[in-house]
C-alpha cells in the first residue's frame, strides 16, 4: 500500500466530491457540473473561479434551468438577497456559452458575424 507523506494512506484521505442542488431544476449534481452564481452590487454574476465572497447559488449551464430559476424567483431566496437582482450579465453568459459548441468550437452564427480583412 502506498504511504502518503503526511501520514496515513492515500485511500483514507480520499474525500468525495461536493454535491450541490441546481436552483432551477432542483436536481442534485457534482459541484464541478454546476455554475456558481453570486450577487455583486445587485447583479447576478457567474463566479467562474468559485472564489467570490458571499453566498452562492448553483445552476446547471442550461438555459432551461436559468428560465426555471427566474420564473420561481429562486435567486433572491437562495442568495438571501432582499431587493431586485438584475440577471442580464447571467443571461449574457448563457448566450456566450450557447454560441460555443460542446467541443469548444464557435457556432456558424457567431463566425459569420466576424469581418474578414483583405490582406492586400
Q: Summarize this, please?
A:
The chain is α+β, with helices and mostly antiparallel strands. It has four helices and five strands, in the order E-E-E-E-E-H-H-H-H. Residues 102-113 have low confidence and may be disordered.
Strand order of the largest sheet: 4-3-5
Mean pLDDT: 82
How far is the first residue's CA from the last residue's CA? 66 Å
Beta strand % = 15-25%
* Alpha carbon gyration radius: 20 Å
Largest sheet: 3 strands, antiparallel
Helix content: 25-40%
Extended strand count: 5
Q: Which structural category fits the helices and strands?
A: alpha+beta
Query: How would you describe the shape?
Result: globular
The secondary-structure element order is: EEEEEHHHH
Number of helices: 4
Low-confidence parts lasting 5 or more residues at pLDDT below 50?
A: 102-113
Question: What does this protein look like?
Answer:
The protein is of the alpha+beta class and 120 residues long. It has helices at residues 63-72, 74-79, 88-99, 108-112; strands spanning 19-21, 28-30, 35-40, 43-46, 57-59. The strands form two sheets. A three-stranded antiparallel beta sheet has the order 4-3-5. A hairpin with a 6-residue loop joins strand 1 (19-21) and strand 2 (28-30). The longest helix is centred in the C-terminal third of the chain and has 12 residues, at 88-99. The termini are far apart. The relative contact order is 0.14.
Amino acid at each position: 500500500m502506498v504511504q502518503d507523506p503526511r501520514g496515513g494512506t492515500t485511500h483514507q484521505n480520499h474525500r468525495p466530491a461536493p454535491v450541490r442542488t441546481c436552483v432551477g431544476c432542483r436536481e442534485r449534481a457534482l459541484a464541478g457540473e454546476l455554475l456558481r452564481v453570486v450577487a455583486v452590487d445587485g447583479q447576478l454574476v457567474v463566479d467562474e473561479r468559485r472564489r467570490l465572497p458571499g453566498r452562492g447559488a448553483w445552476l446547471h449551464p442550461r438555459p432551461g434551468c436559468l428560465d426555471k430559476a427566474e420564473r420561481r424567483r429562486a435567486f433572491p431566496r437562495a442568495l438571501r438577497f432582499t431587493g431586485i437582482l438584475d440577471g442580464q450579465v447571467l443571461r449574457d453568459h448563457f448566450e456566450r456559452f450557447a454560441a460555443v459548441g460542446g467541443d469548444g468550437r464557435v457556432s456558424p452564427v457567431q463566425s459569420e458575424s466576424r469581418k474578414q480583412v483583405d490582406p492586400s
